[in-house]
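Hi everyone, sorry if this is the wrong subforum. Our group has a chain we'd like a structural model of before ordering constructs, and none of us has done structure prediction before. Sequence below.
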Amino acid sequence: MRAELRSLTSEHAEVVGAHLLMAGQLIDTDPELAYAHAEAARRRAARLPVTREAAGETAYAAGHYDVALNEFRALRRMSGTVDYLPAMADCERALGRPQAALRLVKEGLAADPGVAQAVELRLVEAGVRVDTGHSDEALRLLRAELERIGARGPKLARARLRFAYAHLLEATGELELAERWFSSAAALDVEQATDAAERAAALQGVTIIFDDSEDEAEEEAATEESDD
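Answer:
Right subforum, don't worry. Here is the predicted structure as tokens:
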């Protein structure tokens, strides 16, 4: 990001960089506001890939799939990579264009992607199958991908694949199998990017309650010390 911002004047770069920083900080908690910051950065420096990427990712997070798709298309033209195909395919799916989504999935898989990108493409493909009333085919796709990658690839990608498979198993009434796969996903999801542990516990009849009282007590003690 710094390298790209160096092409701007120092004052211009400071403003654009501040908007990008806020977009990154807010995307998980307030995606709509994050998108507003990213869009402000894009308007000021539309030729920079970093601003287009921020606009695309925040628009996607905020559910503005038409905007996100346009940004990802622009990024693909600028970079010449296929890295954005999973997100583009998911935008097409969200916009109700399943065939367009499947074409992008096929194109992405033909490029021999790494495990993480292949998983994302398969997740979109499975989602399209579910949307069009073919849950059995979606289950087959995810099961085949689980068998194909085995223990290869990043933990988070494997956790997301297991989570999606468990979610679909639960939706089709396979509760015992779903619990096992949610537990398997939770074991890999060290960053807790999914709620796999909670989903597994719910199927076991257990409710996980997070006790924040200790953290609150520590915060109060720290506040009192600072006041002293």
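For your construct planning: The longest helix spans residues 10-26. The chain has three domains: 1-79, 82-145, 154-228.
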